């Protein structure tokens, strides 16, 4: 899949377009993107970065990095993706100006979008306007109860199965492995300490079973209250893994929330509980979709 960051990077062609921010690339997003991918025309996704609501001054906790979003879009079989930089200036474009400056130059002929799609200054543009401007519009029915905001709510509650059902895949955390306290190794469970981007959503604190790098992973999300921690940490113990992960991009699937984080009366009690968490992780299965 070709990724472009300006309209000039796409050669002239008639295109079937899927348009949206697509944070999380959940089941509803996939329906829109797959509709464009199945077109007889060259297929392209038009997506936005940074998230429009963040640019407009609202707090948004993202479900995916841009890199991961593009990977998930590519897996759906589209030919190209145009990442449009969302700026305050872009937000002030009238709908007709947006069509003239973004969609017309890339040869958009057929446009796929979710029912209720709005765009342009003050969200004045809709699918009817696109039709009046000469585009063939093919609305894609919304998938009931599936939205990025609902998935965020479920993850804040720690409800991994429900979030996975809406995403159509296991929820993920993504970041870079950095040096930690090295405490896990002294306890017999060496962990990879993951730093995530500040605008990425982190689920409810607790202990999770999941997978990364082809291995099951017991994951701690929180402040490590047993040692009086205050700083949030995301630490993963990869079962049956040996190797160096420092500095590498790390993507972690979450399969199941095992328990709340808590302090213990002694380090022996902590080690015994970690061993039980690891046993549960070894027995865990990915979410049923």
Offer a quick outline of the entry.
By secondary structure, this protein is α/β, with parallel strands linked by helices. Helices cover 29% and strands 27% of the residues.
Write a structural description.
The chain is α/β, with parallel strands linked by helices and 289 residues long. The protein folds into 2 domains: 2-140, HUPs (Rossmann fold, 3-Layer(aba) Sandwich), CATH 3.40.50.620; 171-283, Riboflavin kinase-like (Elongation Factor Tu (Ef-tu), domain 3, Beta Barrel). Helix content is 29%, strand content 27%. The chain is built from 10 helices and 12 strands. The chain has helices at residues 27-37, 52-55, 66-74, 88-91, 95-103, 127-132, 148-157, 160-167, 183-187, 267-283; strands spanning 2-4, 15-19, 42-49, 80-85, 108-114, 136-140, 172-178, 192-195, 206-212, 215-222, 233-238, 249-259. The chain has a 6-stranded parallel β-sheet with strand order 1-4-3-2-5-6. Strands 7-8-11-10-9-12 form a 6-stranded antiparallel β-barrel. Helix 6 (127-132) links the parallel strand 5 (108-114) and strand 6 (136-140). The model has no long low-confidence stretch (mean pLDDT 94).
